[in-house]
């Protein structure tokens, strides 16, 4: 490879300022200067002497643009070499760091092989179907060839794709990339459709095959490879390869952060500090024990409702999803509506909690938090919120309270919570006994807890294009730095889970659906959701991939003797819940009835613009008693321990 000269040759010393990288122009030779013509004088007649041929320009006298191009090529070559060396070094270090670790527990931890074998066997038994599928694929490619030929003859470019992977205009404007994109979409759509068309296979087996076929086709998108991604190639050309160097540096940093395992960064994690620029709602930790911290937040009004509100977030995440920034903080908003807000901030469990199960989280969690919130507020009853898996626990606790005649909880709200898991979405695919045994072995290897990153990887796989491949392309192929995004910072701030609790949850809920059947035992009792009679408010989100709306609807109907109000919000598992009215985003639907199916409910529902919070607040005010003087967390019966957000939420996994 040519070396960049340490000093320019004389004829290039006055070179012009470099042009913008990636936009070279054609070199134009200068016109030769006219030679001076001598004045005619009388001279003897002689044969004319032929003029010497024009001298060829020296290579050092080429126009300045040639030097620019050479320097650009040399810079590009050097940067490509730097990128390759950075990647190779990172991979080598990762391999060394993993060398003393045990091999993967299974080459097929999700048991995809048998599922694909069942699908292929079914297709092989229907040769007519296979023939029709092959003919369909041939016709699709003939249509693609015809459209490509028309493009070559001058037909206008198609509209830019709505698929976020192909949003760059080059995917439609450049015929080569357009054909590459369309060829991929034809093939992937055909493959996924073929697997979905199988009819005589167990539905769960078929769904597993569909899910992993989609994962595979998503992974092979041309947008995920440098050589076939026009946006990445453009960035490389315009930066003379610096984008690829930065991308490989990002790659190396993520491998190092994952201790030899690729842990793709989704946000600039250094921009956020819990308690400083996220989780900043003022309040006090008024109780702390081995399982949770109880936080009481400051009043934002002179008067508050007499009956306080106690929120149980999921123990798989940290509570500050409800307090990211002041403008979208649900906790601040509830305080501004006049509610006394308590939050149970779960401990990030270590190996000493490996034996904690549902009984511990009921007795030492739900019951103790209720007791302490009532003691601090001076109220005889309170209202509760159960968010996601915290809602599953809260639902079981309500059934346990009903069996014991405990009336301390006057009403409960559920955010994206499931109690009937018959239609719990794609997470059901990860809960067959083969996979659960792999999870159990993983937890044993970690000392009895599930590492936080393990569950994060599962959730990311449910939305691979958004949560894996988009960052792979942006961080590594484009060389961009992750954005400072508070939501994704929170999403990566995962917690560990005790083995006993997590395995019981996966087997009893996802595996056997015991809670909705009245067969789940907690606190020494077999609990029945139909025994719950207090008012309940269910929130579901239309695009939720973790707690699908149909699953939440079935859960609402499982409380068959309760007064249930259900609201359906726009967007997904997080944005559907955390949607302050001031944002004026999305929409929500309400229907006072609760018919036999979600489709019937939707048919009779009314659509409303914006957030569902105000509808819920109206319902909650009605359940929260009279107005009383605002409560000060510092002057209650429980002595303040430290300011919110406390210590447990700051413990990293």
From TrEMBL:
Supply the Pfam families for this chain: PhaC_N
Keywords of this entry? Acyltransferase, Cytoplasm, Transferase
The Low complexity compositionally biased stretches are: 23-46
Q: Where would you say this protein principally sits, based on its record?
A: cytoplasm
> Localized where?
Cytoplasm
Composition bias, kind Basic and acidic residues: at what positions?
A: 160-170
Q: Where is this region: Disordered?
A: 1-62, 151-170
Q: Name one GO biological process term.
A: poly-hydroxybutyrate biosynthetic process
- Molecular-function GO terms, alphabetical: acyltransferase activity
Q: Where is the Poly-beta-hydroxybutyrate polymerase N-terminal domain?
A: 162-334
Q: Which spans does this entry mark as compositional bias, Pro residues?
A: 1-11, 47-57
This protein's GO cellular component annotations are: cytoplasm
Recorded hits in NCBIfam families, A to Z, give:
PHA_synth_I
- The protein, known as: Poly(R)-hydroxyalkanoic acid synthase, class I
Organism equals: Brevundimonas subvibrioides (strain ATCC 15264 / DSM 4735 / LMG 14903 / NBRC 16000 / CB 81) (Caulobacter subvibrioides)
